[in-house]
Amino acid sequence: MLNATFEPLQIVSWQRALQLLFQGKVEVIEESEKEVRTVRLTIRVPAVLRLLDYVPLKKKKHVVRFSRTNVFIRDKHKCQYCGNTFQKNHLTLDHVTPVVQGGDKAWENIVTACKPCNQRKGGRTPQQAKMALIRKATRPHWLPTTSISFSVSKTPDRWKIYLKLDTGYSDSEDDNSD
Ligand SMILES: [Zn+2]
Q: 80 C-alpha vs ligand 1 centroid, how far in Å?
């Protein structure tokens, strides 16, 4: 089930999905091949639902643990300098402002970088190295790819594009809410 803004919210059973549908709370974005029959009609079981009313995520905001893996997930395994996507073992964490220049190990100062980019940048800031960040480093409020895909053994193909969706962890969105 997705939020009104298409952010993945949670996994619901097909029974719950139909219940929400009949209550007019959701719309069906994608159907599965499975069908259920009632006395009067046959319905395709929804595969992806979207809530019609936005559920503010702030209420259940949790602190995303700062870790190497979570930084990679936030940055979608993309080097924040060259923009290429890499496997985990080819990625490093880069201090945007280097430690020697007073940069700390925080969400706002750590980005994913491929090994060559990290080496090239060295102990310099992006400005000094003339290597622009493709995106400003921010603190994520949630990481849907982990929370959702870990709760099912295999992520259905239909869900993948939604799970990869930009999750809006930018500062601006935070400032605008409420
Ligand atoms: Zn790179």
A: 7
pLDDT tens string 31-67: 998 898 888 888 899 999 999 998 876 555 566 778 8
| Nearest CA-CA partner of 175 in 128, 144, 141 | 141
State in Å: Cα 112 to ligand 1 middle.
9
- What is the distance in A from the centroid of ligand 1 to the CA of 65? 24
| Centre of ligand 1 from the C-alpha of residue 85, in Å | 8
pLDDT in tens, 96-146: 999 999 999 999 999 999 999 999 999 999 999 999 999 999 988 766 544
Radius of gyration of the chain (CA): 20
Q: Which runs of consecutive H residues, i.e. helices, occur in 39-125? A: 68-74, 115-121
pTM of the prediction?
0.51
Kindly list the distances between the CA atom of residue 42 and the CA atoms of 12, 34, 119, 146, in Å, as whole numbers in the listed order: 20, 10, 59, 34
Longest distance between any two alpha carbons in the chain, whole Å: 71
Find the 34 Cα to ligand 1 centroid distance in Å: 43
